[in-house]
Amino acid sequence: MTVTIKGRGIVPGHAEGEALVSHETISGWGGIDPATGTVIERRHPLFGVCFTGKVLVFPGAKGSSGWSGFFQSTRLYGTAPLAMVIGKLSTKSALGAVVTRVPTLSELDADPLDVVRTGDWVVVDADRGLLTVGEQR
């Protein structure tokens, strides 16, 4: 069974892959290691988990304006997520998505954290503003 929800494309493009879901905001500066694409914030539920090659689904950014720079570094290192689905868009997360240059959706008709589970196969069509969620592969 698949579910499709409508959202707003923030960065255009199309990507599909396995979802990695965080129910907590992610800190860029000090919260991720851009060289490895790994969450390094010790108290974060995804501590030690790599988001490289995954569709990162998360509620939003936390921390300083350095957030976008750290996510841009993941693009430069080749460790960026395939795409991002952001529950609540902020200037930090929007700029981070733009400089990371991965398809990004936000402002969805349904809370993506209620719809997507880690391991689900998702299709991010930011050109059309659609998120399609399939069952785990």
From TrEMBL:
The keyword Iron does not apply. The lineage of its organism: Bacteria, Bacillati, Actinomycetota, Actinomycetes, Streptosporangiales. It comes from the Bacteria. This is Phosphomevalonate dehydratase small subunit-like domain-containing protein. GO terms for molecular function: lyase activity. Keywords: Lyase. Pfam families: AcnX_swivel_put (PF01989). Residues 26-104 form the Phosphomevalonate dehydratase small subunit-like domain. PANTHER family: DUF521 DOMAIN PROTEIN (AFU_ORTHOLOGUE AFUA_6G00490) (PTHR36577).
